[in-house]
Amino acid sequence: MRGMKFSFLCKKKPQPTGKRIAIVGAGPAGLTAAGYLVCRGHDVDIYDKMPEPGGLMLFVIPEFRIPVERVRLGAKELEEEFEVNYYPRTKVMEGERLDEGDEFYERVIRLSELKEKYDAVLIATGIWNVRRIGIPGDDLEGILSPLELLFWIKGNKLGYVPDEKVPDLRGKRVGIIGAGLTAVDVAFECNRLGAEVEIFYRRTIREAPAGAYEINILRNRGVKWFELVTPKSVIGENGRVKAIELLRTRLGEPDETGRRRPIPIPGSEFQVPVDYLVFAIGMVSTPPVNGSYLAVDRRGRLVVDERHMTSVEGIFAAGDVANGPTKVGRAIKDGLYTAVAIDKWLRGEL
Amino acid sequence: MERKYLYVDYLTCIGCETCQTVCDFIHDGNPYIRIYITENKQYLPINCKHCDDAPCIKVCPTQAIYRDEDGAVRIAEDRCIGCLACLQVCPYGVPFYSLKVKAVTKCDMCAERREEGMEPACALMCPAEAIQYGPLEIVMNLVRERRAKNIPEHQRELTEEELRKSISSGFKVF
Question: What's the confidence (pLDDT) of residue A217?
């Protein structure tokens, strides 16, 4: 197998410009931007809190969608052929905040420090937090974060997570709330590990973001699909999840996303017993700042202008940290165009 | 020169849009590979298949469509008269008439990149390894190798019970 060729625009490193760029986050946006920038002759250093580059592609998205080797070899090529330096297990942060995957980092560097040391900084830290649902009982033992569960499973295979971290799901009943790409990936992995999986979704299969095609593959593998239900509370016993209480819903008028809004039907409560629960209802951007150093919007995304630059001159942002959860290809697109902007800015053309 | 193939494997594609993105980038906003989404949300990247028995080559009244040395089906823009006969016969509806170029444009298997000794960008960047480029034999081997990884039995740990049954009676797991 060959790796992704992030430097697809050139065959070898051109005459060096002497400019140094720090990229924070080694996911699809960060690596693709690095590929473009090395092809323009800049020196690139990449910081990432995980033990090796690849981001969600390597640590979260299941192997059958994106092979580990495909990402690994691609990152390695940047290092070997284009002299990109990786600083793994290094979290870049201005202020403090707990994110998922924080157990992997060993060092912290301040963003302002990188700003001093480099000619330009690109932030591509993605979405490493999970949206909480905020219903009674949502902090019981047995409620797993979709992100954590996926990177435990994959990190264990890669040798970074000890066996005891990965819950033994064989024969266990796992309830998943949500029908996005993350929910579907969690369902695939739990099913593969021998769990009895049930997906609960508040709209119907026609509105599900993951699509009927993916969901029907899961159903053929024995996953149960339960639509038009919304969680009301989690029932526990001795501090552990025992069941989920659901309300039936009906669809009302279309909302701002164009999909019909689910309306809970009062008095329709019922319970489904579960051993584990996963709320896969969305992920949140995790910029390397908490406080006023950089401007963020209401949903925690970094605010950028048409030059892909943040509120601080010389600090750029690309990928999910600026756009919210999207697809690998859109992160790559943003990484490419941001890299073009950085190159122009460094040459004084922007 | 040996005939090359650019094959997009729909069963391996994850619909991430990377191919369309890089194609868009190197062709100034006009991607020659585009993702179509079906009613049930299957993702299908569609580009020129560079068919062996290409109907567009046969039907073109001005012989503007030809096959280059790597096997790519190409368009000689100066000979194209814009009659769209190629679009009529293309099973994938690939030929696109560009009002700017005043000729039909479509995927040329990254002709400019090939001249510089580089491969088509979509195949290099696809994270899922769904796009393969090269001589037929090699492409088909790579596709088989990649497909084999996605057979559910290969991804799933069998329970003791299933393992016992599969040995004793040919019991099939999904």
Answer: 93
